[in-house]
Amino acid sequence: MNSCEHDYAAWIGIDWADQKHAWAMQVDGERRLQSGVLEHTPEAIENFFAGLAARFPGRRIAVALEQSRGALIFMLTKYEHLVLYPIHPATLDHYRKGLYPSGAKSDPSDAALILERASQAPRAPAAISTGYGRDAHIAISHRSPPRRGR
What we know:
The chain is of the alpha/beta class. The chain has helices at 42-55, 71-76, 89-99, 107-118; strands spanning 8-15, 20-27, 33-39, 60-65, 82-86, 125-129, 135-139.
């Protein structure tokens, strides 16, 4: 088991798309990978992430996504319980090609791949100011995220 200074209730990988967004989640202490799809509405995103706060009260959740800025990052910075780990699209593309040279791509597997990539290499989050007036924990994109225990 790998020790880490971060104690996350769960790691989530999100593959953001135009209409629906695939997600994969690894809950701390569980072996099973959970997955699903979010509709592209503010209500669906609010329900999902507020639901996670209720499910894991007082615990932080690591969220990895394949973008370093944009609407999703901005929307998620309002949640105190989230720590965001943006992954540069080129980084994920190289990682995908290394694991799956055939080039096959599907959203659910990309969400799991984003989750896997973010949770495997050590990285410390850095706080940045957001439009909501609080510090959002967003990892600096040129470093790798902290490892999660297995």
